[in-house]
Each structure stands twice: as structure tokens, then as C-alpha cells.
Design goal:
The structure holds 2 protein chains of 2 kinds.
Chain A lengths: L3 E7 L2 E7 L5 H8 L18 E4 L2 E4 L12 E3 L12 H8 L9 H14 L5 H7 L11 H17 L2
Parallel strand pairs in A: 1-5
Antiparallel strand pairs in A: 1-2, 3-4, 3-5
Chain B lengths: L26 H5 L15 E7 L5 E7 L1 H4 L4 E6 L30 E2 L5 E7 L2 H8 L3 E6 L6 H5 L14 E7 L3 H5 L4 E12 L8 E7 L4 E6 L4 H12 L6 E4 L15 H13 L3 E4 L2 H7 L3 E12 L5 E13 L12 H4 L10 E10 L13 H19 L3 H8 L8 E2 L5 E2 L4 H11 L2 H13 L3 E10 L7 H4 L10 E7 L5 E5 L8 H13 L6 E4 L17 H28 L6 E4 L2 E4 L5 E3 H10 L12 E6 L8 E10 L6 E11 L6 H20 L26 E5 L17 H18 L13 H17 L1
Helix pairs in contact in B: 10-11, 10-19, 15-16, 18-19
Classes of the chains: A alpha+beta, B alpha+beta.
Chain lengths: 160, 790
């Protein structure tokens, strides 16, 4: 198969490579660019462990081809912290114990960033609905819901 | 099963950090996308393996041709069972005496016995090339009749899954006798049947292996997402005939386990052989599809229950006959989980004098069944808690009263059941009372009466479950055929700079040992909590250990840390006393500084550490260093327990069950970190609620498991109201009991009891999980039809 050239920004870093047209975005992130925060937990798009922000919008990176994302800006969990300071969602996930094995966490954080961008002061029901695309098998979601609710005002204050 | 309870004589005082809700030390790497799971590891000259799997659940392999696949682009080689003829079947690690053992073949030889069984493996330069080459593998199967269900497999004349066995029975496990005698004179005798459905455990990270043989050193490094690194090393070394000291198992971050990641699998053996043959590292990461049909499942019992009770609800005798579907082969713990772990625990918290149990493990054409969160004890809790609920409904008594009538009394503790299982400590009535109060139970009962008059169906369900945690005692594990140690290891080392390394043979796959074990060590050593690093999951680094399962890590692994740290602390104080020329009793360490009470002398931990590790100025009899290793071997296990209440409303039109409230009060003894303990309870509850309402492996008549297991999503879960009661366990130095499996035990019976409580007036007597709207509607329709016939 002919390789195609792609160029994109990942967590603020400009990268260029050639990939097979059939390569999924999540495979490109993990295998070509060494960004291993997005995880592969299924092959059908049901689990959300691969969720990243594509130009600010949460997308499942296993449901896209790498060649579809030319000249976009991708943010993963690794790009959320600024200058070593955790993003308010990361801080709230830490304080509320919203992660256990950590496998779903990078995707969950990206989904939560998108959720709060759309709904800055979500209710519990809105948080649960907004995160329903991301499976977590460890936490039962309660601490995640608490963490997102806690982070919301902090993010509004910081204008994130 | 009798062993005297011998509490170790150790300080049980709760320390400064024990009991504090401290956020985890290990979070940062996970939050910033820097967790390191097996699939994240790519080695130089990496090869990739892809398994070719059977689409049939039962078939004869007529022919298998790998020649085209071998010539595909990027393919290094391809292997079938004939190419790996030196390998025997995977030996189970727990063989209940009398079991007829059929282990999983590394690759299927002539027969396929479950969907997804591997028939060949392709190794290529890239995973995509290996997957492409699989299209060129030519396998001709002769499909055979599929036996997926244990009742069908036990029917007279049923085909045999393993033709060299007389029937499909893998194990018969009888316990107790005397039901008929004890049942005489009972006011109530009821027989009913229930099904504890098969579940797909579904850790978010599937299994993953990267096997790396170095022919220059003769060492094999085996990266594997696993719960028991040391046991995996032993099993793997034995299976492939490899010297154990040259086999290094590294289990880095593990993305959830829940049981299936403690077993030993065909793919493990195959990859360990391939890397030696090819002299390059070979990696395999399971797909979710493979995870559903190749990784072990959980539960799957069909159970007949007979109960005899007095009119006041006192249970006189219990008889249980259960058929456990163990799948096509006996997995690691496959014979013990459905038998020992169910039969011995069916009496729960209740003083019931007579119990008779027969459990039969049955081979079928399904994925092997093994330990899944709770591992047999949820099945036992489901049996007894559903029985209590049934007795209450039959007699028109309150379910809480029937529990009180049957509880083991406070003055009977410690108590031993006729099955041999011990209850160490608890406050069963107080725990139940706290749950009832939290749930506003009385008010709900009043509301239920009014609602019934309005045609609305409300139900309250209780479960006051228990089980045993903190396995265990070698003296008991040997006779039941459980071939592993019950101890756990810890090494505590204070470095010259006063910082601390703790090595532990337990292995976190999300539980947070790096935090809880640091809390335990900090309390003993008197050093800042942040100065302690807990390392696990590397057999070259960590003293021989056992691993994480059975909610044992705090009570056994944490106790090992406490004891080792206490010994180091004693040595530090002796050395400090010598260096400060003070009395031992007068030396205290706080925040890294030694002081003498009543004197002005101080000594930094760095000064002490340097002295200890150079030996300079240290009396010879104190020896070198500040390092201690403990292999903590428990004398007894503990019996965590809890009271769970589910309040539901059933929609009579749609069959939907709304979980209005869920309350869980847990007595897990001394809690090291309440924040993390809550996380464990909530996670267990999610799996228990998932089992009650949604989840089902739903293997069809062709032996195919469900393609998309309905794992609960965020909007499918209720708010969980959780609180604690603390009765310290007398059986370990921490007073801890275990919490990881609690939710998975309490939630299924609590929720099903609630649904039956709601539906009982309609004539519904039994309802099996998951409580889908279709199933609820069918039960209502059947009950209505039954009433009309009558």
C-alpha cells in the first residue's frame, strides 16, 4: 500500500510522517509518534479509551484514519498540563480519586474537557450523559462525576 | 478446614496516616498519559504475533495449511500445534482432589472445544502484516454439535466434550449432610432454582505479552499484564522447562484485572517459546474480540435450593445442588472457584445448623470459566441472600427481621460454620441498622404500601453478605489442591539519604498500593509519606511473592509491609540511641529527625542512614544497613461483611427497573485510606449492579458469546451511598479485612431481592439476572397467566 504523508500538531509539537492509508489515528499516535496516552480498549469504538481532542473536540481516535487528520491540532492527556501544572480536571481527578488502573483516564479526561467546554456548569445527569461514550470498569463513575463537577468552577475561573 | 485462630501479638494501634483519605501518590503518570502498560513497550527488533482462532465452538480440524501464510509479506514464520509439539496442556494451579483435569492446549491439536480457541499463530515484522497473513491460513473444520449449557451437558446420553472421559463431569464436590432430618418439623419448605449468569470480566486493558529472549545471557524477560508476577514466573518456567532464576516477569502498569489476569494462558506459553525459537522479542496484545472469547469468564451456575424454616423465619436447614459450567477446559483456578469458594460460603452470616451442598463442575463447549471479582463467593452470597429474601416473602416477614433472627450472635464470635469457614469479627445487627437508617427503610416501607394501592411497584432488597479475604494458610491450601503460597512478601529499605523503598509481592492493577502501603510504612518508620516509594511487578527486583487477588493485598501484603517496616524502625531507634548516647525508650523519630525525650540531642535520618550503610561508628552486633524482608504468612483469614439495600421501582408497563437508591455499609475492619476504599466499593458495586441489571455473556446455542457485553456506562449507574462500620480483624496486625470484592457480592442479591419484593404481589416468584425489561415483563406475564389459570 502506498504511504501518504500527514502533518499535524500533537500536544503542541508539530510532526510529519508517512503512514499507510488504512492506519487508524490511534495507531499513528501510539506507534508512529510514540504518544501512548490514548489506549486501545476495543476495536469497535465502544470503549472511548482512545479519546483525544481534535481541534478541541473529543473524538475516538480509533474511529478515524490517520490520513483524515492532516493539519489539525490534537491534544491528548499528555498535553493538558501546562508548565508542569495539572489541568483543573487532572487535579480534580487526583483529589477525588477518579482513577484506579488509569487505562481509561486519558480518554476520560479528553471527553470531560469537551463536556465542560460545551456545558460549563453541568448537572450530575449532564455529566453522566456527556461521558457515556467512555467506559470505566474500575471506578463505577461516581468519583469521576464528582471530579468533573469539582473542576467545572475552577475551569470557569481560569477561563479554560 | 479447622485451624485454631492464633492472633499475632503485634501493636494494633492505628497510626498517624492510617485512616487518612489521602489522594494517590501514583496518579500523576496516569493523568498525564504517561502510564506504562505492556502494549506501550516496544523493543528493538520487535516482532508481532497474531493468533488464528476458530469460528466454531466445537469442531474437528480436518486440515490446516500455513504454507501460504508463511510466504506472505513481512511474515517471519507461522506455527500450528504440530510445530510446538513439545508443549503439553496448560496445567491448572488449583486442582480440587478428584477433578478430571483437561487443561487448555497451547494451540488446538485436532479438536476445537470453544469459540475463539487458537489454532495457529503468525509472527511478522508488523502486526498489520501478521493480521493480513491470517487471511492466507487455510483451515478446514468439521463442525460438531455444540453443548454450551451445563444442564444439556449433564443430560443422559449427552455427547462428551472430552471423549476419553466417562461423562462431562470435571469435579464433584459434596459438603455436609442431614437436610432431611433437620428439615422435619419445619413450618416452611421451599424449593427454587436460580441462575447466576456467565459474565465477561472485561478489564479495560486486554491481556498483553511481550516476550524477549536474549540468547547471549540465556535470560527471558516476559512483560505481561498480570496480577501474580511471581506465580506466573513459576508456572511459565515449569511449562516451558526454563530455569526460573533466568526468567524475569515484568508486569508494569496493569489496566484492570478483576481475576482473569491472574491466570496462566495458552498465549503466554506460545510467546515464551516463539521468542526462543526466533531469538527476537515477540509481542501480542489481545483484541477485545479475543478478550471476550479467549480470556476466562466468570460465574455461570445453575442452582437448585431447598430451604426449611420455622414460621418465625429461623432457617433450620439448607440443601444446595449446583451445576457449574467450567467451560471446555479447566483454567488455573477453574476447579476450585465454583466448588470450594461457593460450597463453604453458602451460610453467610447466619447460624444455620445443617447444610448439604453438592456442586458439580461441568465441561461444555464454552470459554473456560475462572475467578472473576469475588471468585465463587458472589455466587455463594447470591444463594444465601436470595434464600433469606425468599423465606421472608414466603412467610410475610420483614427481610431485615429474618436476617436478625438468623445472624450469628455477637457472643458466638469468633464463629465457625459447619462448612469450616470462620467469621472473625463483626457487628452484624449494628451494620444492618445503620444501612436501614441510611436508606430510610421504614419510610420506604410505608411509601410502598401507598404505592401498591396506586398500582405502582416499589421494592426494597437487602443483602447482608460476608466472605473470607486474605488467603491464606498453607496448611489449608494444600489439602484443597491450591498450589500456591498464602504469604506475601515485603522488603523495606531506608536509604542513606533517609528515603525509603518498599518492595511488595502484591501487585496493584488499580488498587493504589503505592499509596496505602506507603501510609502503612510511614506510620512505622516515622518518615514523611512522600519519601516512600512502593515498587512491585518485577520478579528480578521484588522478593518472592504471591500477588493480588481475594482482597488480600492490604491484610496480607500490607501486614508484611508493616512488620518489615517495624523491624527497620526498631533498628533505627537502636542505632539512634547508640549515636545519641541515649536510652532506647527515650528516642523518637518525627518527620525525619530523631530526638531524645528530655535531652537536647538530635540526629537527622540522613546521618543515621549514612552510618547504617557505611557501618562506621556502628556496633558490629547491629549489623549493616536498614533493610528488612518479611514473608508474612497469615494464621487465619478475615470475614469482611456489609449490609446493602437497594430501593427500586418497577415499571409494570415497560418492565424497566429504576434503582432509586443504593446503600452499602461496609465492615472491612481498619481502613487504611477511606478515599481508596470507597473507590474499591464503588467499582465492585458497578460490577455487581452490572450483573444484576445488564451484563450477560449470553452464549448462544452455537457457543458464541455476546459480541458487545453491556458493561455499565456512566448514565447507567445510580448514586451509591457508602459508609463504614469498623470492627478490627483480630487476625492480622493491621486489623484489616479486605474490600475489593465487596460490591460484587452485595449488589446482585440486594437488587434482585428488591425486584422480587416489588413483584411478589403479582405472583412473580423467581427472576433471573440480568433483570432486563424483557425478562421482567415475561415474568409478570407468566405470573398473570398462572393466576388466571388458577
Amino acid at each position: 500500500m502506498h504511504h501518504r504523508k500527514i502533518s499535524l500538531t500533537i500536544d503542541g509539537r508539530r510532526v510529519v510522517s508517512e503512514v499507510e492509508p488504512r492506519m487508524l489515528l490511534v495507531q499513528a499516535l501510539r506507534e508512529v509518534f510514540g504518544v501512548t496516552g490514548p489506549h486501545i480498549g476495543c476495536e469497535t469504538g465502544r470503549c472511548g479509551a482512545c479519546t483525544v481532542l481534535v481541534d478541541g473536540q473529543a473524538m475516538k481516535s480509533c474511529m478515524m484514519l490517520a490520513v483524515q487528520v492532516c493539519d489539525v491540532e490534537i491534544t491528548t492527556a499528555a498535553g493538558l498540563a501546562q508548565d508542569g501544572v495539572l489541568h483543573p480536571l487532572q487535579q480534580a481527578f487526583h483529589e477525588r480519586h477518579a482513577l484506579q488502573c488509569g487505562f481509561c483516564t486519558p480518554g476520560m479526561l479528553c471527553a470531560a474537557v469537551d463536556l465542560l467546554a460545551e456545558t460549563p456548569r453541568p448537572t450530575e445527569t449532564e455529566i453522566r450523559a456527556g461521558l457515556r461514550g467512555n467506559l470505566c470498569r474500575c471506578t463505577g463513575y461516581q468519583h469521576i462525576v464528582e471530579a468533573v463537577a469539582q473542576a467545572a468552577p475552577a475551569m470557569a475561573l481560569q477561563g479554560i | 478446614m479447622n485451624l485454631p485462630i492464633k492472633p499475632p501479638k503485634l501493636d494494633q494501634a492505628v497510626g498517624r496516616l492510617t485512616g487518612q483519605a489521602i489522594p494517590r501518590l501514583e496518579d500523576r503518570r496516569f493523568l498525564t498519559g504517561r502510564g506504562r502498560y505492556v502494549d506501550d513497550i516496544v523493543l528493538a527488533r520487535q516482532l508481532h504475533a497474531h493468533f488464528v482462532r476458530s469460528p466454531h465452538a466445537h469442531a474437528r480440524i480436518v486440515s490446516l495449511d500455513l504454507s501460504l501464510a508463511r510466504t506472505a509479506k513481512g511474515v517471519v514464520d507461522a506455527f500450528s500445534a504440530a510445530d510446538l509439539a513439545e508443549l503439553g496442556d496448560i496445567a491448572p494451579n488449583w486442582v480440587v482432589p478428584g477433578s478430571k483435569v483437561k487443561g487448555r492446549p497451547p494451540l488446538a491439536r485436532a479438536m476445537i472445544r470453544h469459540h475463539g480457541e487458537a489454532v495457529a499463530v503468525i509472527v511478522a515484522e508488523s502486526l498489520a502484516e501478521a493480521v493480513d497473513a491470517a487471511e492466507r491460513v487455510e483451515v478446514v473444520y468439521e463442525p460438531l454439535a455444540v453443548l454450551a449449557d451445563q444442564e444439556a451437558a449433564m443430560a443422559p446420553g449427552a455427547p462428551r466434550i472430552h471423549p476419553d472421559l466417562a461423562d462431562n463431569v470435571a469435579t464433584r464436590f459434596p459438603v455436609g449432610k442431614g437436610f432431611d432430618e433437620a428439615a422435619q418439623g419445619a413450618d416452611l419448605r421451599v424449593a427454587f432454582k436460580l441462575r447466576n449468569q456467565r459474565l465477561v470480566p472485561f478489564p479495560m486493558e486486554p491481556r498483553a505479552v511481550n516476550a524477549d529472549f536474549d540468547d547471549a545471557t540465556g535470560r527471558l524477560t516476559f512483560y505481561c499484564a498480570h496480577q501474580l508476577p511471581h506465580l506466573l514466573r513459576r508456572m511459565l518456567a515449569a511449562a516451558i522447562g526454563f530455569p526460573e532464576q533466568k526468567l524475569r516477569v515484568i508486569s508494569p502498569d496493569v489496566g484492570g484485572g478483576f481475576g482473569p489476569k491472574m491466570h496462566f494462558y495458552p498465549e503466554d506459553v506460545v510467546l515464551a517459546v516463539l521468542t526462543q525459537r526466533l531469538k527476537r522479542p515477540v509481542k501480542w496484545t489481545e483484541t477485545r474480540g479475543e478478550n471476550i472469547s479467549a480470556t476466562t469468564h466468570g460465574r455461570d451456575h445453575v442452582t437448585h435450593i431447598e430451604v426449611a424454616a420455622r414460621s418465625d423465619g429461623k432457617i433450620l436447614a439448607l440443601r444446595i445442588n449446583s451445576l457449574a459450567n467450567v467451560g471446555a477446559y479447566l483454567s488455573s483456578m477453574g476447579s476450585g472457584v465454583p466448588t470450594v469458594n461457593v460450597a463453604l460460603f453458602v451460610l453467610g452470616l447466619y447460624a444455620i445448623g445443617h447444610v448439604e451442598v453438592l456442586i458439580t463442575n461441568v465441561y461444555t463447549n464454552t470459554t473456560p470459566v475462572d475467578a472473576y471479582r469475588g471468585a465463587g463467593r458472589p455466587e455463594a452470597a447470591y444463594i444465601i441472600e436470595r434464600t433469606i429474601g425468599r423465606v421472608a416473602l414466603e412467610l410475610g416477614l420483614d427481610a431485615a427481621d429474618v436476617r436478625r433472627t438468623n445472624f450469628v450472635a455477637a457472643d458466638q464470635l469468633p464463629y465457625r460454620h459447619p462448612t469450616g469457614i470462620g467469621l472473625d469479627s463483626g457487628q452484624y445487627e449494628a451494620t444492618l441498622a445503620k444501612a436501614l437508617e441510611q436508606a430510610d427503610y421504614e419510610a420506604f416501607r410505608a411509601e410502598q404500601v401507598v404505592a401498591r394501592q396506586e398500582g405502582r411497584l416499589l421494592g426494597a432488597g437487602l443483602a447482608t453478605y460476608t466472605h473470607s479475604c486474605g488467603v491464606g494458610m498453607a496448611e489449608l491450601m494444600g489439602p484443597i489442591g491450591f498450589d500456591r503460597g498464602g504469604f506475601e512478601s515485603a522488603l523495606v529499605r531506608v536509604h542513606p539519604d533517609g528515603r525509603v523503598t518498599v518492595l511488595s509481592g502484591a501487585h496493584s492493577h488499580g488498587q493504589g498500593h503505592a499509596t496505602t502501603f506507603a501510609q502503612i510504612a510511614a506510620d512505622e518508620l516515622g518518615v514523611p509519606f512522600e519519601h516512600i516509594e512502593v515498587l512491585q511487578g518485577d520478579t528480578d527486583l521484588v522478593p518472592m511473592g504471591v500477588g493480588t487477588f481475594n482482597s488480600r493485598s492490604v491484610s496480607v501484603g500490607g501486614s508484611a509491609v508493616k512488620i518489615a517496616a517495624a523491624r527497620v524502625a526498631t533498628k533505627m531507634r537502636k542505632l539512634a540511641a547508640h549515636m545519641m548516647q541515649a536510652d532506647l525508650e527515650g528516642v523518637v523519630l518525627e518527620a525525619g529527625l530523631f530526638r531524645t525525650t528530655g535531652g537536647n540531642a538530635t540526629l537527622t535520618i540522613q546521618e543515621l542512614g549514612r552510618a547504617a550503610w557505611t557501618g562506621q561508628g556502628v556496633p558490629r552486633d547491629l549489623g549493616i544497613g536498614l533493610e528488612e524482608t518479611e514473608f508474612y504468612h497469615p494464621h487465619a483469614m478475615s470475614a469482611p461483611n456489609g449490609a446493602h439495600i437497594a430501593l427500586v421501582e418497577v415499571d409494570i408497563e415497560t418492565g424497566e427497573i429504576a434503582l432509586r437508591r443504593y446503600v452499602a455499609i461496609e465492615d472491612c475492619g481498619v481502613v487504611i485510606n477511606p478515599l481508596l476504599a470507597r473507590g474499591q466499593i464503588q467499582g465492585g458495586l458497578a460490577q455487581g449492579i452490572g450483573q444484576a441489571l445488564y451484563e450477560d455473556a449470553a452464549i448462544d446455542a452455537e457457543g458464541m458469546p455476546v459480541a458487545d457485553p453491556p458493561i455499565p456506562r456512566s448514565d447507567m449507574m445510580p448514586w451509591m451511598e457508602i459508609d463504614f462500620v469498623c470492627t478490627p480483624s483480630p487476625n492480622n496486625p493491621l486489623g484489616a479485612k479486605g474490600i475489593g470484592e465487596a460490591g460484587a457480592l452485595g449488589a446482585p442479591p440486594a437488587i434482585v431481592n428488591a425486584a422480587l419484593d416489588a413483584l411478589w404481589p403479582l405472583g412473580v416468584r423467581e427472576l433471573d439476572m440480568p433483570l432486563t425489561p424483557q425478562r421482567v415483563l415475561a415474568a409478570i406475564a407468566a405470573a398473570t397467566a398462572g393466576r388466571e389459570r388458577a
